[in-house]
Amino acid sequence: MLALAACGDGGGSDTGDGEGSDDPIVIGVSLPLTGDFAEPGKGVERGYETWAQVTNDNGGLLGRQVELKILDDASDAARVVSDYESLIAQEEVDLLFGPFSTRLVVPASRVASEYGMLFVEPAAAAAEVFENGFENIFYAAPAIAPDHYNNLVEHILSMPEGERPQTMAVAAMDDPFAQGTAYGLRDKLVEAGVELVVDEVYPPNQSDFNAIAAKIADADPDLVVGGTQYQDAVNLILALQQLNYQPRMAAFSTAPTNPEFPEAIGGAVEGILSPTGYSNQADWPSNAEFVEAHTELHGEAPQEDEANAYTTGQVVAAAVEEVGCAEQGECQQQLIDYLRGATVDTVVGPLAWDEAGRPNGAHMILQYVDGEIAIVLPEDTATAELVYPKPEW
Q1: Is residue 391 reached through a cis peptide bond, with omega within 30 degrees of 0 on the bond before it?
Q2: Averaged in consecutive runs of 10 residues, what is the pLDDT profile of the chain (393 residues)?
Q3: Any residues with CB less than 8 A from the CB of 136 and at least 6 apart, and which?
Q4: What is the DSSP string of 283-340?
Q5: Predicted local confidence at residue 345, as pLDDT
Q6: Alpha-carbon gap, residue 90 to 243, rounded angstroms
Q7: Global pTM?
Q8: What is the rounded end-to-end Cα distance, in angstroms, of the chain?
Q9: E strands along the chain, which residues?
Q10: Contact between 57 and 44 (Cβ < 8 Å)
């Protein structure tokens, strides 16, 4: 499947003359538009499409229009490898954007590295992504998974010792992202003296959470942490509610930011926390333009997947405009070298990276306050004050 975000003849430009060419700058992408990761994959596609439209409406890159060449990898790791090999070697695209999920980004980044291509990716936060020695990869979000909760950790440790949570339960899906997010919080708090009383791992296809919920309820920890995607978080919370377990603090990754989440757990959302790299309300440069353009193009406000995709485009664009080139060959190393020392303003905030491509920030912490999800940490971007202890659900 091929999707074009702007008109053009297709194929990459081999003129190498930057602003002197009238050909579009062609950007190759492989995304899971079908298969297990189709839902978030389509979100990433929407974010890329919005970026392409806004960029072209503002005059393109280096005075040239941009064109997206998107292939469907069907959520398959072998397919994503062949897709990027085809985009680079056969289609001769000028630039690359990354796919969705750690399971696809790791093999895709290997292909990009072999061809010496800059590889900015929107959706692989697991620590293992940045442990392969590749110098060309950059994550277009504020933090990798183990650092998502850093702002919450700082807040908890700033509380008087007698008031902060003393015990903690963790339940995490057997998934690099889900575990990375939960374990980053777990390990930092354990090191600070919080007692870990439950530590459970469950398979991605688990639907019955009664046994795990019973362990948590029996231990009655002050803090419960879910390393979750979506449906698993809903099922775990429903099981905890049935047992009338009432934590003083509850944090779950991913699920609480989903618009369907409140209804799915019966509306008992008050006080639930979740990390996020993006908020429509965040006052970052270009965010208002992004929200307006995305809503007009797709009929709804952007979520985190769309924002990280848009950020990917902003990061690549910043490098292209600064270096003054967009093609395969020596230009790619120049783009990589520029980003190594750059700070780029994006819709998720200013981004800078270490030598492995890890961003150096932390996620915002969201919480349901008076029935609405709001930014509560860090304090300088908060739209509401963190509620603690958590109201009963």
Answers
A1: no
A2: 39 47 94 91 97 98 98 97 98 98 94 98 92 96 94 97 97 93 98 98 95 98 96 97 98 91 96 94 91 98 95 98 98 98 96 96 94 93 95 96
A3: 109, 112, 113, 116, 117, 118, 119, 332, 336, 357
A4: --TTHHHHHHHHHHHHSS---HHHHHHHHHHHHHHHHHHHHT--SSSHHHHHHHHHHH
A5: 97
A6: 58
A7: 0.82
A8: 45
A9: 3-4, 25-31, 66-72, 95-96, 119-121, 137-139, 167-173, 195-202, 223-227, 249-252, 273-276, 344-346, 349-351, 364-369, 372-377
A10: no
- List, in sequence order, every residue forming a beta bridge with 344; answer none if it has no partner: 351
Give every CB contact of residue 389 below 8 A, 6+ residues apart in sequence: 248, 249, 271
Instruction: Look up residue 274 and give its two tokens.
Output: 């979740």
The one-letter amino acid code at 343 reads T
Residues 6+ apart with CB under 8 A from 139: 120, 121, 124, 125, 129, 130, 353, 357, 358, 359
Q: For residue 3, what pLDDT is reported?
A: 41
Angle ∠(177,181,185) on CA atoms, nearest 5:
160
Partnered with residue 373 across adjacent β-strands are 368
Separation between Cα atoms, residue 11 and residue 163, nearest integer Å: 61
In order of 32, 35, 84, 176, 250, the CA distances from 42 in angstroms are 7, 11, 18, 21, 29
**Element spanning 156, H or E:** helix 150-158
**CA separation for the pair 370, 383 (Å, rounded):** 12
User: Could you write out the DSSP letters of every residue in 20-61?
Assistant: G--SPEEEEEEE-SSSTTHHHHHHHHHHHHHHHHHHHHTT-B
What is the reported pLDDT for 12?
Answer: 46
Which token pair is 326?
Answer: 């967009």
Tokens of 358: 């890890």
